Amino acid sequence: MYTDPVQFEPLLPSEARLEPLLAKSHVLLRQATRLAGTRVPPELRNLLRSMNSYYTNRIEGQHTRPHEIEQALRQDFSRDLGLAARQRLAVAHIEAEQSLETRYAGEAGAKALYSVEAVCELHRGLFGRLPATDLVTTQNEPIVPGQLRQREVQVGQHVAPAHASVTQFLTRWATFYGTVRPGELTLVALAAAHQRLGWIHPFVDGNGRVMRLHTHTLLSALGYTGGLWSPLRGFARSTERYYALLADADSARRGDLDGRGNLSEQALMAWIDYVLDTCLDQVGFMSGMLDFETMKARLEACLVFEETVLKSGVRQEALRGLHYLFLSGEEMARGDFKSMIGMSARGATDVLGALLKRGLLKSDSAQGKVRFGLPQHALRFLFPRLWPEAEADAATVHGAP
């Protein structure tokens, strides 16, 4: 049984072996900072929160379909009790993610995330949003939001630290990772901290969700995401590798060439490399999706489909206004938008109404300003392959060919 924090060393690879990881972190830092500064419509960030929730549920094997999350956000929960519980968990993740990004913002927020209190707050921020009926494990054990575990646990082959020592391990985890030098090493440490937090296994349930929320929130606080990407999508699309590398990094040291700590340095390096590659892949993908040169063509394809195939009342004349709203990321008075359509007053009003009905425009009131909308059924045109499951769902739910 682990009782001394020295037993989960190394917390980072040795200086002699850091260089390739630091070089990869440098590329990620540069590319992510550039992407995070991109101006986009607010609805894109809202959709990405739903996507993050979907993917973290999928990693845990607690599957919800994208349209089921969409329904839950409208407080339309399934009559199936199990599905309704998963829907509530999805909504809780969305709300917690947004709240935590606000709570832990900037350099001070990033530093504060490395604390015992923050780890407990992440757990409480998620599970504290659920009703008591949902706060039980699969073994019918109660889950107390924010409470560190009060018993011993074993996950696969890994026997977690003694419950009486959890605070001591978390304190060492927080002190070490929270004081690494700024820059590239911060990203290497972030990846290592994800794995070592799981190794500690501080809670009876929800550890994986807390680990991923910590990584996601920390990347946001450091200014690397801008709400436009998350490693959660990448982890979910390589779940077997995610879990295999996490578990492998729990392994004991493999001889004299495997570092100087109690655990395997080689396995920790492989895990960190995977996290950095996953982040780079997500940044690269989203950067391509936000290529403004091709967005106009994607918007046009969407409008053509709406007008000629679905005959929804949407017209191609709306292209100019929609493209402007996407590029500006701002709202516009309804009269100004209608003037950009270039049709008669009655025709422009009908088109605007159709755009609102189809979700391609959003407004907070009957006569309020409009902003760019991003309904799931439009993803196949506007952001193809971003969330394939939502594309498939939308084709079924909306009857699109």
Which descriptors would you attach to this protein?
401 residues; mainly alpha; Fic-like fold; Arc Repressor Mutant, subunit A; two-stranded antiparallel ribbon; two-stranded antiparallel sheet; 18 helices; 4 strands; 2% strand
Walk me through the structure.
There is one protein chain. The protein is an all-alpha fold and 401 residues long. It folds into two domains: 5-289, Fic-like fold; 292-397, Arc Repressor Mutant, subunit A (Orthogonal Bundle), CATH 1.10.10. The chain contains 18 helices and four strands. It has helices at residues 19-36, 42-59, 66-73, 81-103, 106-113, 116-127, 166-177, 184-200, 207-221, 231-236, 239-248, 265-289, 292-310, 319-328, 334-341, 345-357, 379-382, 388-397, and strands at residues 154-155, 158-159, 361-363, 370-372. The strands form two sheets. Strands 1-2 form a two-stranded antiparallel ribbon. A two-stranded antiparallel ribbon has the order 3-4. Strand 1 (154-155) and strand 2 form a beta hairpin. Helix 1 runs parallel beside helix 12 (265-289), helix 2 crosses helix 4 and helix 7 (166-177) runs antiparallel to helix 8 (184-200). It is elongated and about 75 Å long. The N and C termini lie far apart (58 Å). The model has no long low-confidence stretch (mean pLDDT 94).
What coarse outline follows from CA principal-axis ratios?
Answer: elongated
* Largest sheet report: 2 strands, antiparallel
CATH superfamily of the largest domain: Fido-like domain
Q: Strand order, main sheet: write it out.
A: 1-2
CATH topology of the largest domain: Fic-like fold
Span of the ends, CA to CA? 58 Å
**Percent helix:** 55-70%
Q: How would you spell out the order of helices and strands? A: HHHHHHEEHHHHHHHHHHEEHH
Number of helices: 18
Number of domains: 2
From the coordinates shown, what is the CATH architecture of the largest domain?
A: Orthogonal Bundle
